[in-house]
Structure formats: structure tokens, C-alpha cells
Design a protein that fits this description.
By secondary structure, this protein is of the alpha+beta class.
């Protein structure tokens, strides 16, 4: 079995928003629709208030995901405010995320207690969640809103000075560009990275652990695309660098945004030889191992970042949470067999 497909879309690729570049450049549309627009408020830690259909309570736990999915499809959605409640007009660095059902959606930086024109917003801080914790359990609209909001607002935070002449920049085109004092334009930047599930074409998959991760926590291999490099070439280079083996039959699986701060994860799978010695890259990979499909299924059944210790003291393999495309890739490969 050398080929397989994702069984579902990566969770942060879900998006009910329609993006239209022309609307961003239409001051009339912005002024006319702002009072009725809905606004996502994101704090400096990337958190936003979330309304839960099946409430997880204040101690948000990913292990509750199965119960929420069974009860409501997804656990919750991002809570938004009307534009009129936020400000008389779009704040200078607000971002027009897109439209859904004829409603424009924007994003702004804010906090649990935010003052706008004398009004105080008093959200319960306990309802706020970030994309890593809540992204997998939001509905399609909520996932798209928070992913887009975090990605673009992160870019604004890091693009306040022009890369050409160093002068200050200001937001433009409803948050989708910045213009410096000398007229140079810059646009939201995305850094592509490959993420690759290496298998043997039969019943084994290769996992690796970064040095900063807890013992037992493993995932598939990934790395940033270098300048002038194709995605496929990056797959070959990263696998060779990180574990010291070559791969063949590189095939595309899917992609999703990973705005921490501004990556795009492009998923592949490839075939490697488990008989070749693994040489983990010093400083990058603490250790790497091949496990069987049944062993992977056991780890998946343990839940996200499972921690049950076996009686014999053996290392337990813990896998990425559902918000990561790595989880979708591993679940899909496990199901394919």
C-alpha cells in the first residue's frame, strides 16, 4: 500500500468565508457595511471568546472532543461583535477577513475588557481560547475566522517597518497591505513548510521526536522550504537531514495554515526503507523510530497527547493533537490499512 488519501480535511483548512480582493479596495463597501459587520476580537496571546454548543467548562480538555463531536458535530464557534459596538468605523489596523451569508467579518486586536468609545466589553476571561486549544473543535465558520484573524494580525504585528527603507508602515486595503512613508507596499507573508509522513509502503510508519518535547511525544517529520527550492525537493532534503535516509514516491496529501506565527503546512507522504539505519540530526531530532500500523492505532486510540503508562514501564507513544495536520495524516494512514 504505497498510496493513500486524507480521510478528512485538515481542521485549520476548513473555512466558510468567501474572500474578495475587490471588496477590500472598495471604501464605499467598507463604510456601508461596517455597522452590521461582525468582528472577531483577538488578544495578544491569540485568544478569542468562544461560544460552546456543548460546553467544555473552564478546564478545556481536548480529551472531551469525542463527546462534543457526537453531540453537536463541533463544540463551538467564535463569538463576534457588531462593528457598531466596536467602533464608529473600522480601526486603522482592522482586517476584513471575508463574507459568509452576506455578512462581512473583520478581525481586530483586543482584550477581555476592551474600551471602545466609552463602552467597556466585559467578557468572561474563562471563555477565551486560542487556536491551538480550540481550533479542532470549532465549527467551519469559527475555524476559518480564527485562523485568518490570527494569521493576518500576527503579520501586522511584525510588519510595522518597511523592509525596503525602514520607514514606518500603515495598514491599507482593509488590512491586506501595508504602505510605508515612501509608498512601498508589503503584503501578508506566509512561510511554506513541508510535513511528510514516511512509511515503508506496507505496514510501518516513521516517527520522530524533537529534543524539547517530552519523552514519548512523537510526530511526522517537517521543515521549512528554502529559497529557490521546490516542495518535493524540500521533502527529500529534510528527511535526509533529519533522519539520514532517502525517500521515494513523494506524493501530495493536503495543506493547512499554521499561523504560529505565519506558516503554511504542506502535507506529503513518501516511502522509506526501514532497514536503513536512522541517524537523527543533532540538535533537531532527539530520536526516531518505526512503528507498525497496529501500534499507531493503539497510540491514536489513547487520545491526543495520551499519557497512560503501561505496567512494564515501556515508553508510550504520544501523538499530535487534532489541530495539527500531522494528526489527520496519521489517522488517514492508519485507516488506509
Amino acid at each position: 500500500m504505497s498510496d493513500f488519501a486524507l480521510t478528512e480535511a485538515p481542521v485549520l483548512s476548513r473555512n466558510a468565508l468567501s474572500r474578495d480582493e475587490n471588496l477590500r479596495r472598495d471604501p464605499g463597501f467598507v463604510a456601508r457595511t461596517w455597522p452590521q459587520a461582525r468582528v472577531v476580537v483577538v488578544d495578544d496571546a491569540g485568544r478569542t471568546p468562544v461560544d460552546w454548543t456543548v460546553a467544555p467548562g473552564r478546564a478545556f480538555r481536548e480529551t472531551d472532543a469525542a463527546a462534543w463531536d457526537a453531540a453537536a458535530g463541533r463544540g463551538g464557534t467564535v463569538r463576534t461583535r457588531s462593528g457598531a459596538e466596536v467602533a464608529p468605523e473600522p480601526p486603522a489596523e482592522a482586517v476584513l477577513l471575508g463574507e459568509s451569508g452576506g455578512v462581512p467579518y473583520w478581525a481586530v486586536r483586543g482584550a477581555a475588557s476592551r474600551t471602545a468609545d466609552g463602552d467597556v466589553f466585559t467578557d468572561d476571561q474563562g471563555d477565551w481560547a486560542d487556536l491551538r486549544a480550540a481550533g479542532a473543535f470549532l465549527d467551519e465558520l469559527g475555524a476559518g475566522l480564527l485562523t485568518g484573524a490570527v494569521a493576518t494580525l500576527n503579520w501586522h504585528d511584525r510588519a510595522r517597518f518597511c523592509a525596503v527603507d525602514g520607514t514606518r508602515t500603515r495598514a491599507h486595503d482593509a488590512g491586506w497591505a501595508r504602505v510605508c512613508e515612501n509608498g512601498h507596499e508589503e503584503y501578508p507573508r506566509t512561510d511554506p513548510a513541508i510535513i511528510c509522513l514516511v512509511h515503508d509502503g506496507a505496514d510501518r510508519v516513521l516517527l520522530a521526536r524533537q529534543p524539547v518535547w517530552p519523552v514519548g511525544r512523537y510526530s511526522v517529520l517537517a521543515g521549512f522550504v528554502e529559497s529557490g527550492e521546490s516542495l518535493e525537493a524540500c521533502v527529500h532534503r529534510e528527511i535526509a537531514e533529519e533522519v539520514g535516509i532517502g525517500v521515494t514516491d513523494v506524493r501530495y496529501l493536503g495543506s493547512q495554515a499554521w499561523p504560529f506565527p505565519r506558516s503554511l503546512m504542506v502535507g506529503f507522504h513518501a516511502v522509506g526503507d526501514p532497514e536503513l539505519p536512522l541517524r537523527p540530526q543533532e540538535g533537531e531530532i532527539a530520536d526516531a523510530l518505526w512503528i507498525t500500523r497496529d501500534e499507531l492505532r493503539t497510540a491514536l486510540a489513547r487520545g491526543d497527547w495520551g499519557s497512560d503508562e503501561p505496567a512494564d514501564g515501556a515508553t508510550v507513544v504520544m501523538l499530535p493533537g487534532k489541530v495539527s495536520i500531522a494528526r489527520t495524516m496519521l489517522e488517514s494512514w492508519a485507516a488506509a490499512g
